[in-house]
Write a structure and sequence with these properties.
Layout: E1 2-5, E2 8-11, H1 17-23, E3 26-27, H2 33-38, H3 51-54, H4 56-69, E4 73-75, H5 83-87, H6 95-110, E5 115-121, H7 133-148, E6 155-161, H8 164-177, E7 181-185, H9 199-208, E8 213-217, H10 222-235, E9 239-243, H11 273-285, E10 290-291, H12 299-308, H13 328-331
Parallel strand pairs: 3-10, 4-5, 5-6, 6-7, 7-8, 8-9, 9-10
Antiparallel strand pairs: 1-2
Helix pairs in contact: 4-6, 4-12, 6-7, 7-8, 9-10, 11-12
């Protein structure tokens, strides 16, 4: 049962996201669409989330894997679940069903072990030169939010915005719901939004608009994204998030979607678990509050991040005897 607390909607049971962040770093989950494409459930190219209706078991399985790896938030798989985007694959009449199912599946897995985030993302409909586009985007966001909130998420993540203007529209619509909000920007080749704003300027604008958590996500790997999160951290007080991809890309092509490997050979770019664990530790040291990951990040990455943050389940003990090996681990004297 949801209730209003201080103008914010809070689901009974779990401590809310803002309260958890007040206590310390929160660990997010990983990437869904790219991982489910690898498993054969999502179509490469459109990367739309009809999988929540067609193969709900596959979505729940991945939610469960992230949860067991140590994630403290499960994001609803409603990325690209706006009407215009779904229309490209013939699902425009399933907007409500897909958005509700996305939150419901995450909630069924999360139980009382994790928070559930509703999700908004870029619509590809925002055009600052078109005066009517803002209202169109508002309608798309409202349609998604109305459906997702029927399943009582704990807060809303609006993500992967290249236009600050579109991110501000998402924040405007979330604010009307009274839900806690997290809004993150994405930066491709240049560390500026498409409307010409630096990460620091984006952070200040989103904070002034009322976002509870601001940050960066996707496109770039930890090495190329964390500096932008640091810039936001220096620009604003309050909570900052960083959710990089787990893909290796050269500095001159920081956006993995611009590489020749996207979308059919992205597995050749995947970073190691140790790299993602090191990122989590570095992000915490930099004062980042919400530490997660995005495209390319698998449960193994999240587990290593959880270990780096002291949040992973304890491994079972086992006898190790290098003098009398009973495994290749002992035989070759691996120790880390």
């Amino acid at each position: 049962m949801a209730q209003r607390l201080g103008g914010r909607r809070k689901t009974s049971g779990n401590t809310g996201i803002l309260e958890q962040l007040e206590k310390g770093v929160v660990l997010g989950d990983g990437g869904y669409l790219l991982e489910l494409e690898k498993r054969g459930y999502v179509q490469a190219g459109p990367f739309t989330p009809e999988v929540v209706l067609e193969h709900p078991g596959a979505v729940k399985e991945l939610h469960q894997e992230f949860l067991d790896a140590g994630a403290e938030v499960l994001q609803s798989l409603a990325f690209y679940a706006s009407k215009e985007k779904l229309a490209t694959v013939g699902y425009a009449n399933k907007v409500r069903d897909i958005n509700r199912a996305a939150v419901r599946l995450a909630r069924e897995v999360a139980g009382d072990r994790a928070l559930v985030a509703a999700n908004l993302s870029l619509t590809w409909m925002y055009d600052p030169k078109d005066k009517g586009s803002a209202d169109k985007v508002r309608r798309l966001f409202d349609e998604q939010l109305e459906a997702q909130l029927q399943e009582a998420p704990d807060f809303v993540i609006a993500e992967t915005f290249s236009w600050l203007g579109e991110a501000l529209l998402a924040m405007e619509r979330i604010e009307k719901t009274g839900m806690p909000s997290m809004v993150t920007m994405s930066f491709d080749k240049d560390p500026k939004s498409y409307d010409g704003h630096s990460p620091a300027e984006c952070a200040r604008a989103l904070r002034d608009a009322g976002a509870d958590i601001i940050g960066v996500n996707c496109l770039r790997n930890p090495l190329l994204l964390l500096p932008l999160a640091r810039e936001m951290r220096q620009a604003v007080s309050g909570f900052v998030a960083c959710q990089p991809t787990a893909y290796s890309t050269p500095p001159d092509v920081p956006d993995f979607t611009a590489t020749k490997e996207f979308p059919f050979e992205t597995e050749t770019l995947v970073l190691s678990r140790k790299v993602m664990g090191a990122f989590a530790a570095e992000a915490r040291a930099a004062g980042i509050n919400y530490i997660g990951s995005c495209c390319g990040s698998m449960p193994v990455h999240v587990r290593e991040m959880a270990r780096a943050l002291g949040k992973a389940p304890v491994d079972r003990t086992w006898r190790v005897d290098y003098a009398k090996p009973m495994s290749a681990y002992e035989f070759y004297k691996h120790r880390t």
